[in-house]
Inverse folding.
């Protein structure tokens, strides 16, 4: 499994050559505060890289969730819909948002690897 990151603080794990799991990073959930609502994308809908695929609302603010790569949403985390706080308590695990079938693996290669994302965080 390979984890990559976006400048908008989403993570994406490639589990095989087609499916990838998407969520928000520790930095994103820290900045948002207590997550109280998530709007998840529609299963079966295709999105382009960078397109808004959902919304995360917290006690502090609301933030768009951007699609890290182009592809079709094949599953959403219904547990997260029922318990949005999972995005805070386990953002890289049980707090995942959705699974996407990646349309173009070259887009995945354009994302930040962990050292590059760590370097970005140091500039914030």
């Amino acid at each position: 499994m390979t984890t990559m990151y976006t400048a908008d603080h989403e993570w994406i794990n490639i589990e095989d050559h087609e499916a990838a799991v998407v969520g928000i990073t520790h930095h994103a959930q820290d900045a948002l505060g207590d997550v109280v609502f998530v709007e998840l994308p529609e299963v079966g809908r295709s999105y382009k890289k960078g397109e808004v695929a959902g919304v995360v609302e917290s006690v502090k603010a609301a933030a768009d969730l951007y699609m890290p790569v182009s592809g079709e949403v094949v599953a959403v985390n219904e547990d997260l819909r029922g318990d949005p706080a999972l995005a805070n308590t386990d953002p890289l695990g049980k707090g995942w948002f959705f699974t996407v079938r990646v349309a173009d693996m070259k887009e995945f290669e354009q994302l930040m690897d962990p050292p590059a994302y760590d370097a970005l965080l140091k500039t914030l």
